[in-house]
Amino acid sequence: MLRIALPNKGGLSAPAQEMLREAGYRQRPSERDLTCLDAENDVEFFYLRPRDIATYVSSGDLDLGITGRDLVRDNGSGAGTEELLDLGFGRSTFRYATRVGSKHELGGQRIATSFPELVLKDLAARGETATVIRLEGAVENAVRLGVADVIADVVETGATLRQAGLEVFGEPLMESSAILIRREGGTSNGSTAQLLRRLQGVLVARRYVMLAYDVRADMLEDACALTPGIESPTISPLHREGWVAVQAMVLLADSHRIMDELYELGARGILVTSIHACRL
Ligand SMILES: Nc1ncnc2c1ncn2[C@@H]1O[C@H](COP(=O)(O)OP(=O)(O)OP(=O)(O)O)[C@@H](O)[C@H]1O
Ligand SMILES: O=P(O)(O)OC[C@H]1O[C@H](OP(=O)(O)OP(=O)(O)O)[C@H](O)[C@@H]1O
Ligand SMILES: [Mg+2]
């Protein structure tokens, strides 16, 4: 039986469960449940604090885990894990910020953060010495309340920083997103490979749509150049003489541009449908 750690709370919890449901796995019926057995798929899920997940996976007590890359790097046990897949949600950067107009320096400053290990590693790499103050959250308040001169925190839109009168400085310490991890050097059995294929299928289904259209046969090569598909587009004959129907997967983000260009080529009956799941 495959044993998988998932975030029990916080911003990564709901999207992680949604992704697993889309991949065909059973998820806990109540947000208070700490385990969920999916007997049909021979998988058991354990809902844990996202910060703790690397601890269980690096020790080998759980086979796989979903958590934030930044949380793994801030957990000493993270070094004993490896990343199998970027799951595409929970994207953020981790950055230093200070009061607008203040000096952009780290040496000798008091730096407030919920990610002390990340910050200490970064300071060591820079050869800087500073005082790191560990806070549980709402770190942006630390500067105006006088507890710190600088913060190091998760930035998504930057709205929280702006509201607190802070500005980022320097390069991001890291870019994060939700990831699937396993024990470093671990081997994949059949169930792990199946889970990976299913999650990859969800990622593709989220990024791509199926495009179908009719086009005159003499324009087919130009049309296929716009919609090459992943392997090759499907061409079917139409009852109408001299016309064919084409089906191909295209990136959702490109779909409207491609539809406009196909229409210009003379294609008609252009339809976009979403993909619920796939194995490529
Ligand atoms: N806007 C965001 N705010 C907080 N975390 C975010 C955001 N966007 C992505 N993340 C990621 O979510 C993870 C933080 O999850 P965690 O469960 O620790 O805290 P949370 O979602 O902020 O919940 P809480 O702070 O209420 O416990 C990190 O990997 C972080 O990079
Ligand atoms: O760049 P933004 O889009 O504004 O998002 C980033 C903010 O969101 C998170 O806070 P959260 O709501 O998790 O509260 P916390 O600080 O107490 O964890 C994070 O710690 C930042 O404060
Ligand atoms: Mg938070």
From TrEMBL:
Task: Give the Histidine biosynthesis HisG C-terminal domain ranges.
Answer: 205-276
Into which EC class is this enzyme placed? Answer: transferase
Q: Which residues form the ATP phosphoribosyltransferase catalytic domain?
A: 49-201
Provide a Gene Ontology MF annotation, just one.
ATP phosphoribosyltransferase activity
**Mainly resides where?**
cytoplasm
**Subcellular location field:** Cytoplasm
Q: Which residues form the signal peptide?
A: none
Catalytic activity as recorded in UniProt: 1-(5-phospho-beta-D-ribosyl)-ATP + diphosphate = 5-phospho-alpha-D-ribose 1-diphosphate + ATP
Give the record's GO biological process terms.
Answer: L-histidine biosynthetic process
What switches its activity on or off, per the activity regulation note?
Feedback inhibited by histidine.
**Where does it sit, as one GO cellular component term?**
cytoplasm
Q: What domain of life? A: Bacteria
Q: Which InterPro entries has this protein been placed in?
A: ATP-PRT_HisG_long (IPR020621), ATP_PRibTrfase_cat (IPR013820), ATP_PRibTrfase_CS (IPR018198), ATP_PRibTrfase_HisG (IPR001348), HisG_C (IPR013115), N-reg_PII-like_a/b (IPR011322), N-reg_PII/ATP_PRibTrfase_C (IPR015867)
In its keyword annotation, does this UniProt entry include ATP-binding?
yes
Q: State what this protein does.
A: Catalyzes the condensation of ATP and 5-phosphoribose 1-diphosphate to form N'-(5'-phosphoribosyl)-ATP (PR-ATP). Has a crucial role in the pathway because the rate of histidine biosynthesis seems to be controlled primarily by regulation of HisG enzymatic activity.
Family label: Belongs to the ATP phosphoribosyltransferase family. Long subfamily.
- Protein name (Swiss-Prot/TrEMBL): ATP phosphoribosyltransferase
